[in-house]
Structure formats: structure tokens, C-alpha cells
Amino acid sequence: MQALAITSKGMEDIAALEIKELIKAESSVKESCVMFEPKKLEDLCTLCYKAQSVSRILVLFHHFKFKDKADLLKKINLEKIDYNKWLDKKNTFKIECERLGKHNFSSQEIEQEIGELISVKNKVELKNPDITFYAYIFDKELYFGIDFSGFELSKRHYKIFNHPNDIKGHIAYVLVRLSGFKVGDVLLDPFCKTGVIAIEAALFASGFPVNYFSKDKFGFLKLKPIKKFNFDTVDKKTKKIKKHIFGYEKSSFYTQSAKKNAKIAGVNDMAEFSSNDVEWVDTHFKEKEVNRIVTYPPILSKKSNKNEILKLYQELFYQANYCLAKDGRIVVLTKDIELFKEKAKGYKFKVVEERKVWIGEMVMDIVVFGKGL
Description:
about 375 residues, Rossmann fold, about 30% helix
């Protein structure tokens, strides 16, 4: 049995790491997704419930490369699928296609034509189906299977209160993991907006399931071989952690939003948020007390004041030079990587790693800085 975890391009290795940690399965890394072999179907349920780096989990029936739409439809062999294993006669279904890349066909075309090829007599239900057959197309590769998720896992239920420049939860999680953050580390996001990075760090450190409050929404609950999943087995592994995770936000309005989001996420007693500018960091932390600084700072735009933004970047490294531990790391998500490299040099921070990550069609840079390397 093969399975697929869909993530964002540039994050595949972190998704593979998380899968190994959660269900002890090795992954084959592809572009924007990873393939793996779960030991049992319940492993896929566990990933839907806990994984922070993914957007979809599929049990995989087909994977192949294709030249064009005609070649795709020729190669997809739907007759070999044992539909009776997955569907009761009363189950409704739909076909959903997610497509990234340039193609001479639309997602709707693929949905319609695959739907005509599937040899089941079950009723089609587009709005609220029991089963979703999922076609994931990235450039010239197709992955086809059944969606265990039932919803986009990268969309967080706790993000009720938003900021115009927020990032998705799975992106924030990857930033946290790239920092090397572990239980007991002091982590600071000095530009926390509505708290996503700090919340994801708290979920990871405590083991509290990211989808704890979405237990009734999973697609796998309607699958014939599953029907019921023991969430309690996973919940018992959650542990309380001390408040070593901090988020600073200049705006008191967004600070309150971060606190509310953390409460909705179930980690409000594990992360602390306060209304502070980055220039006040050295008044709240001792020298070399912080282990990880993980952040998505304000970006340069037509509406922003360039001098003010550059001053913030400068201040970030000035404060890090004082409060960051000798083996500490700074992880920054940015569109202006060269500006950060320039400011980092002034305080003898060096680039440990840099990579590009795709957020939809937008490409951004992640850069990890360290000192005394």
C-alpha cells in the first residue's frame, strides 16, 4: 500500500521527517509531495490528525508521468481499483483535481473526464461527498487516490483572527523545524502578528494534535475500512510544556488576536504574547538566553517606509547579538534575502542554510543564520 502527503514545494524534506517521527515510515521525496508506505490505514488517520507540514493525505492508487491530457487519460487505469473495499452502495463521491503548473487543460476538465471513467454506480455529490477521489497534478506528474483528509490540512481552524501578512500554519511549522527547536528551548518571534509561528511551535513541542478540534470533519471517517478511529490513543501522548515560547507584536490589537488564536488552538498556556517592539528584546531576556528566533518580519512594499523597515532588520540582529545563545539560530522568511544577509554580516552572523519555498504561486526565501560557525 502506497500513500501520498502533499505539501508545498521546498518543504518536502520536513514533511518526510515528520512522517518518520509520527508513523515510523520512510518517504520518497517528490516535488511538492512525498510518497511513503504506511504499515496500516490508521497511520494515515494519525497523519491527518497530527501532521503540521502537509495539506492532504491520500491513499495512492496511481502515480505516473504524462505528456498531455490524452496521455494522462490513456495511462490512468481505474479498472484495477477495488471500489468495494472503500465504498458502500449508499456512499456518495466526487472527483477533485488540484493542479500546479502550466497545462493545456483545466482542473474541471480532469474532474469531469476521470468521473466518466470511474466504474461505480454510486451517486455523485459535489458539495458534501462521503468519498473524494483526488487527482493531484504537479507539472507533468499525476497522483491519484482517495483523500483521507476531507479538508485542506494546511488551513488552521484556530486562525479566526487574521493579519494581512499572515502565513499558513504549515509554513510556520517548517520555519520552526528548520531552527532546530526542541522541547525546553526558548523560542522568540519578535514580529509575531497573530501568533502562528509561536502556536505551531507549541503544538509541536507539546504533541497536541493540530486538528484536535476537527475530529468530526475527516474524510477517513466515512471510508468503509475505517469508520472509527481511536483519537484517544494519540491524545494520550500530549504533554504539558513550560512557557518557553514567546511572541512579540507592536500592535496591541494583533497581540490580543494572537492570544485568542492560541486559546482556540488549545495552547494558550504554552505560549506567551505581549505588545512589544523588537528593540525591547534585551530588556526582557538575559544575555544568551534565547535559543531560537523564528520570524516573518515586515516586508518592503510600495506602502512601507524603506528606512523604517531597514531599521527593523538592523535591530533584529542587534538584539539577537545580545540575547541569542552561542549555538542559537535565527530563521527568517523573506522576500528580501540579500538585505538580511547584509545586516547579518554587521553582527558576524553567517548563513547556515537557505532555501526557496513556494506559497501558492509566490516564491519566498527561508534563511537560517548562526553565529560562531
